[in-house]
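INTERNAL TRANSFER SHEET
From: sequence group
To: structure group
Subject: Stimulator of interferon genes protein

Please process the attached sequence and return the structure record in the designated field. Keep the field labels unchanged so the import script can parse them.
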Amino acid sequence: MQSLRDQDTLIPRPRGNLPKACAATLAAVTMGGVVVLFPNRLFGLVAKAILMLTLGPLLHGLCLLAEEMLHHYNTRYRGRAFLSHMLPACGFGGKTLLVAGLAGLLLYLAGHPLPHKDQYWHLLILVSVLYPLFKSLGVLGPSEVEVSDICEGRKMNVAHGLAWSFYLGYLRLVLPHLEDSIAAFRATHQSSSTWRGRGSRKLLVLIPLNANISHKLEDEDDNIRFYDNLPNNEIDRAGVRGRVYKHSVYRVLDENGKAHECVVEYATPLLTLYSMSQESSAGFGEPERRQQVLLFYRTLQDILEHSLECRNRYKLILLDDKHEDDPHFLSKAILRHLQQQEKEEFCLTPPPHQEMVHPLSNSSSAPPSAPSMDGDWHHPEPMSREPTLMFSLEKPQPLKGPVENSDY
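Return from structure group:
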C-alpha cells in the first residue's frame, strides 16, 4: 500500500541553481589556471573566448531576424516596435550585446598580446560562422532539460494551463459552497447518513498518474458504491443562466464492511491529457503524459494552497499506477486519507450552551455544587453531555522557587 510520504518522492521539485554553481566553479578554476600559466595573456584569451561565444549567437539571431521581418512582422508582432519586441525575440537581448561589447573593448585594451594573432582571428571568424549552421541543424539545440526548465519557469506547460483552468473554471466556483451543500444533503438524509470526521466534508480529488480515469468509481473498485448527488449549485457562467455544478456522494467500505461517506471525483483535465497521448498529431507520448500529470498535481497544489476561497475544503489524492493488481487499491487510498484527516484535525471550539457562574456572585440560585446556607452539601446533577476538553487561554506561569520558612 502506498504511504502518504511516498508522494513526495513522485512529485518533481522545481529545478534549482546547481548548474549555475557548477559552471561558476569550473570557470573560476580555469581562470586560475590561465593566470598561473599565461599571466600576460589573460585578458586577450578571455576576450577571444567571449567573442567566440557571443558572435555566433548574434549571427544566428540575424538569420532568425530575416525570417521574422519578411514573414511574421504583422501576424506575430502586430506591427509593434522593432527594437523593443522583434530584436529581443531573435536573441539580440541587452545581456548578449553588453557582453559582446565588453569583450571587444577588453580585446582592444589588451593591445593584441597574443602570438600568431592572424590565426586567432581566423579561428574567431570560423567558429562564429559555423555556430549558426550547427544551431539551425539542431546540433547545438537546447536539451530536453533546458526546454523543460524554460517551460516550467515561464509557466508554458500543458499542465500549468490545465491546472489554472481547473481552478478558475471549477474549484474556485464550487468549493466555497461545498459545506452548505453537504449540510443540506445531511438534512435530507438523516436516517441513513453516516458522515464522520472533517475529511469526509471535503472534496476529494483523485489524480491518477496514468491519467486513465473511469466515469464510474464503482467500475474501478467494488468497495465503492454510488450513494446520491449533492444539491445542485446553479451559477451564471459565460452567458449560460443557471449553469449546474454537482458533486456525487459515494460510500466507501472498509475491511470490516463499514461504510464511509465522502464526496469524491476525478480531476477532469486528466481526460484531456489522456486523449492527447492517444493522438499521434499531438506529439504527446506516455512519458510526457506522466510528467505532465505530476506537474499538474504540483501546480494545482500550489494554487490551492494560496487560495482563500478553497482553503480546508479539498484534498488532492495522487494515485500511483504501481498497484493496479490490487482490486481495492482505490478504496484503500480514499480511506487512508479520510483517516489521516480525522487524526490530524481537531475541533477546539468550546462546547455549546456552557454557562459559567462566578463563585462570589450574589445570585439568588446557587450552583449545584455550592454549599447551602444550612451547611448541607447538595450533590451535583448528573452530566447531561459527554465530557469535553477544556483549554485555558492564560499564559503559562513560571514555577515558584523554594522558599525558606524556618525560624532562626
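Handover comment: The domain at 158-344 is CATH 3.40.50.12100 (Rossmann fold). Residues 42-71 form the longest helix (30 residues).
Transfer complete.
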